[in-house]
Design goal:
globular; 2 strands; 301 residues; mainly alpha; disordered N terminus; 71% helix
Length: 301
């Protein structure tokens, strides 16, 4: 599949899910008794207009395995969607810190440490992560534990954080494309995979369906990050909402740096095809996941 720019359809498809999770985040974000300054920083970090991809994956995955919205545990899916977005938000706040990627622009706005100072940014990220598991603790009791386990696995020391450690050069990683896929598979794909599996839990997935979602989301997550690598060298700050070219300047592991633009585009297509093929056990119920896959690899920001 060729890399084709198509941002409008992508963001339009996610819009209903973005609106739904925005309302839930506004209601569930901060606990009573939180200091006003911390509340302001948390809201700044999480409520700015964004695509809300991971919450959409929760809902779409749940609907795919349940063969429609009526078979989804709505209360569980809503909390799963909020929790995964809180974790994603915390990861971006910490990723932008001076000790990490040292970025000044995120979602078209000053990053949290630029606006509030480094200490408040760290604490706001901590609070978002902690609140995510508080939100899941209030999910329906028969699903809360399984949802928390999936999110912890995706975000933890063998998942997203492992990828960040390797990306920062704090642990050994293989060279070439193998190293890139190791980092991307954890730093980006692991949380996307958690979102899909959490959706599967909310939709009552059996083991076969859960495996299909796992394989789809892992390939999708790798493709998604490779598109980011491509955009880092082809898009403007206005298009991306963050500073382009920083990964290349910092010598970060990326598909583009290892194999070049054309080969990276080809890899995106191969991963996209692999993701779609993984959905075969779900039949037509997964058509919206197939559409999302196509739109994700064609995005321009």
């Amino acid at each position: 599949m060729a890399y084709i720019k198509d941002a409008t359809r992508f963001e339009g498809r996610l819009a209903p899910y973005a609106q739904r999770v925005q309302e839930m985040l506004d209601r569930l974000l901060v606990e009573p008794g939180a200091e006003a300054e911390l509340d302001e920083a948390m809201r700044y970090c999480i409520l700015a207009g964004v695509k809300r991809l991971r919450p959409a994956i929760v809902w779409l995955s749940a609907e795919a395995v349940a063969a429609g919205p009526s078979g989804v545990d709505l209360a569980a899916a809503e909390r799963a969607a909020v929790a995964v977005e809180l974790v994603h938000g915390y990861s971006l706040v910490h990723d932008d810190l001076p000790a990490m990627d040292d970025d000044t622009l995120r979602r078209g706005l000053p990053t949290a440490h630029v606006k509030f100072g480094e200490a408040m940014a760290i604490l706001a990220g901590d609070a978002l992560l902690t609140r995510a598991f508080g939100v899941l603790a209030e999910a329906p009791a028969h699903l809360a534990g399984a949802l928390a386990a999936e999110l912890a696995a995706g975000a933890g020391a063998a998942g997203m954080i492992a990828g960040q450690v390797a990306d920062m050069g704090l642990s050994p990683v293989a060279g070439g494309l193998e190293g890139v896929q190791y980092i991307h598979g954890r730093k980006t794909a692991a949380l996307i995979r958690a979102a899909a599996r959490m959706g599967g839990v909310c939709g009552g997935a059996d083991e076969r369906s859960l495996l299909a979602l796992s394989d789809w989301s892992q390939a999708l997550g790798l493709a998604f990050q490779m598109v980011d690598d491509l955009l880092d060298v082809t898009a403007s700050a206005d298009e991306m909402g963050k500073t382009p070219g920083k990964d290349a300047d910092a010598g970060k592991h990326s598909a583009v740096a290892v194999v070049g633009v054309q080969a990276a585009q080809k890899l995106v297509g191969q991963l996209s095809d692999r993701a779609v093929e993984s959905l075969a056990p779900l039949g037509a119920a997964a058509d919206r996941l197939r559409e999302l896959t196509d739109l994700l690899v064609r995005r321009t920001r």
